[in-house]
Amino acid sequence: MSENNDDLYADVIGPTNKNYYLAYFRRADERGYTPLAWHWPVLFADVFWFLYRKQYRWAGIVTLISLLILVVAGQIGRMGYPDLGVAVQLILLAAFKLVYVPLRANALYYDWVQHRIRLVQAALPGNLTEQKSMLTKLGGTSFTAPLMIVALLFMLASFLPPPG
């Protein structure tokens, strides 16, 4: 990265929580690696946070890993070990969604931001004004994807039979 890291980072991050992420990104740049850092919003809304921050790939990966854990635990239960299946499910989901993802979210976001900057710099070499404009469009936040998922979940829930 060049001298104007903070400016490029800020363009991708957008105004929401910019200072929080810039402080983490500076620490990562100074150390040469991404330090572990707890991220409370990810603890409570992991996939929705990834969608909100436009990290669609990571939202999909977290969802797929969570589903894989459920499938494996279900298979263990079907093999005649229902208590073990439930224990495996609880332990793996807790370890993944309640520990790993909140501890690594800032690092994943940092890597995502760095990748966006490299892509834009390669596509628009030497044109800082266009780079900044493109980074602003690619980054920031969006309520669209999280709200679409919530709406989809409500629509799917409407097809379920009523309890009782």
Task: Describe the 3D structure.
With 164 residues, the chain is mainly α. It has one domain (5-158). The protein is 77% helix and 0% strand. The chain is built from seven helices and no strands. It has helices spanning 5-13, 18-31, 40-52, 56-78, 82-123, 128-138, 144-158. α4 (56-78) packs antiparallel against α5 (82-123) and α5 packs antiparallel against α6. The longest helix is centred in the middle third of the chain and has 42 residues, at 82-123. The radius of gyration is 19 Å and the shape is elongated. The mean pLDDT is 93.
Sequence-ordered SSE layout with sheet pairings:
Layout: H1 5-13, H2 18-31, H3 40-52, H4 56-78, H5 82-123, H6 128-138, H7 144-158
Helix pairs in contact: 1-2, 1-5, 1-6, 3-4, 3-5, 3-7, 4-5, 5-6
Quote the beta fraction. under 5%
The biggest sheet, with number of strands, parallel, antiparallel or mixed sense and barrel status, is: none
Number of E-state strands: 0
Name the helicity range.
over 70%
Work out the count of structural domains.
1
**Form type:** elongated
Name the average pLDDT: 93
Counting DSSP H or I runs of 4 or more residues, the number of helices is 7
Instruction: Report the order of strands and helices.
Output: HHHHHHH
Uncertain ranges: none
